[in-house]
């Protein structure tokens, strides 16, 4: 007898945690022309021109499997960070590295923990593992809740530094205090560290439970290439290597990423331009009565001024829609008291930020 769709349902065969979970919702990627896209923290500038040439040379060799460990990339990253080769892992985007960390260190008997608000992919990944996720809420000042982190009994902790979506950066001493007192694996997601003043690499020498994850998506302008990496003890890297796909990073990505990492001068220029625009845009928001957390990322988290007697959350929702009607996309996270009155705005080109400020002025007058 053949299986009819009323008798046999694939969902009944899915693991319970997969059946009940909600997938991660990425920021909108509009297809039409004319959008100012400031919603997913991509760079507004192209990657180093050396990337295209390196990728083109690899196209000839697509018949052959890539280097299974991304060895030349690992070697370069080890030299760049002053770490041993065995302390570097390369993945298909930072997201794959995060997924593999949950695969190794979280499960039904091994819970995870994170600060809130933060990157909303972490709880999706731990749900796939059937692991509970404890969330430690920030207070409005967004200071690192060091004592609560130390008291957490989880097996795995996720902290984004600089934080997302706020852009707030935590000092190395606070990170040390939090990671040192935490019993499990402590992940610091440094996707935005290139835009900040500090990073946690020096702490790897002291803290055997520390993992740093990085991405080329934001600070190298290579979101489409999919390349991320992890820095940790040799023991932790060996565990990640056990559970990854044998060819987890394709040829084009390995070659393109290596070229981008080698072009240090171009990268430094990109970072300098973004930081300059971030400071002038922040000043523009402050002049207009927005509240803005000091940002160490390539985005700002800004609370618009209220018009008349609308609530702060309504002001944020209304400015979000007004910007979208005017073909400017930013990110809005409703439903959480700490985020519902804010917009996260990626740093684009200076003229795009001016356009946003002018549109916000029109919104302000339009009650
Ligand atoms: C964008 C982002 C990532 C994803 O990085 P990919 O390398 O594109 O997978 C990871 N963590 C945070 C905090 C991010 O904002």
Can you describe what's shown?
This protein has 367 residues and is of the alpha/beta class. The protein has 2 domains: 28-45 and 265-365, Alpha-Beta Complex (Aspartate Aminotransferase, domain 1), CATH 3.90.1150.10; 49-262, 3-Layer(aba) Sandwich (Aspartate Aminotransferase, domain 2), CATH 3.40.640. 39% of the residues lie in helices and 13% in strands. Helix 5 (94-105) crosses helix 6. Bound molecules: pyridoxal-5'-phosphate. Pyridoxal-5'-phosphate is lined by residues 93-95, 119, 160, 164, 189, 191, 215, 217-218, 223, 228.
Give the gist of this structure.
Helix content is 39%, strand content 13%. It has 367 residues and is of the alpha/beta class. The relative contact order is 0.16.
Features:
367 residues; alpha/beta; Aspartate Aminotransferase, domain 1; Aspartate Aminotransferase, domain 2; seven-stranded mixed β-sheet; three-stranded antiparallel β-sheet; 39% helix; binds pyridoxal-5'-phosphate
The 3D shape can be described as globular
Relative helix content: 25-40%
Tally of extended strands? 12
What is the count of distinct domains? 2
Estimated radius of gyration: 21 Å
Enumerate the spans where pLDDT stays under 50 for 5 or more consecutive residues.
Answer: none
String of helices and strands:
HHEHHEHEHEHEHEEEHHHEEHEEH
* Overall average pLDDT: 96
Please name the CATH architecture of the largest domain. 3-Layer(aba) Sandwich
Number of helices: 13
Strand arrangement within the widest β-sheet reads 2-8-7-6-5-3-4
Oligomer: single chain
Alpha-beta classification? alpha/beta
- According to CATH, the homologous superfamily of the largest domain is Type I PLP-dependent aspartate aminotransferase-like (Major domain)
Proportion of β residues? 5-15%
Bound small-molecule species: pyridoxal-5'-phosphate
């Amino acid at each position: 007898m053949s299986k009819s769709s009323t008798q046999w349902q694939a969902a009944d065969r899915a693991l319970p945690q997969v059946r009940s979970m909600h997938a991660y919702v990425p920021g909108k990627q509009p297809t039409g022309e004319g959008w100012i896209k400031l919603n997913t923290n991509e760079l507004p500038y192209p990657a180093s021109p050396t990337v295209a040439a390196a990728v083109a040379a690899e196209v000839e060799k697509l018949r052959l499997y890539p280097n299974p460990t991304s060895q030349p990339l690992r070697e370069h990253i080890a030299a760049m960070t002053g770490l041993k080769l065995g302390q570097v892992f390369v993945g298909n985007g930072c997201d794959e590295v995060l997924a593999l960390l949950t695969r190794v260190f979280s499960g039904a008997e091994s819970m995870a923990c994170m600060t809130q608000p933060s990157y909303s992919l972490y709880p999706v990944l731990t749900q796939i593992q059937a692991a509970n996720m404890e969330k430690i809420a920030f207070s409005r000042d967004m200071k690192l809740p060091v004592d609560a982190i130390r008291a957490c009994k989880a097996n795995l902790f996720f902290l984004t530094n600089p934080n997302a979506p706020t852009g707030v950066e935590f000092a190395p001493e606070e990170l040390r205090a939090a990671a040192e007192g935490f019993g499990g694996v402590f992940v610091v997601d440094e996707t935005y560290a290139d835009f900040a003043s500090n990073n946690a690499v020096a702490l790897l020498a002291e803290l055997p439970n520390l993992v740093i994850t990085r991405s080329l998506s934001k600070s190298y302008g290579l979101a489409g290439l999919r390349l991320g990496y992890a820095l940790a003890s040799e023991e932790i890297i060996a565990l990640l290597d056990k559970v990854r796909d044998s060819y987890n990073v394709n040829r084009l990505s390995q070659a393109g990423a290596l070229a981008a990492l080698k072009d240090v001068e171009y990268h430094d220029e990109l970072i300098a331009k973004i930081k300059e625009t971030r400071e002038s845009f922040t000043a523009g928001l402050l002049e207009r009565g927005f509240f803005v957390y000091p940002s160490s990322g390539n985005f700002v988290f800004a609370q618009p001024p209220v018009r008349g007697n609308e609530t702060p959350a309504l002001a944020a929702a209304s400015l979000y829609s007004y910007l979208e009607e005017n073909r400017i996309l930013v990110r809005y996270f409703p439903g959480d008291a700490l985020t519902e009155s804010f917009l996260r705005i990626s740093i684009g080109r200076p003229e795009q930020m001016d356009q946003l400020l002018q549109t916000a002025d029109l919104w302000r007058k339009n009650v």
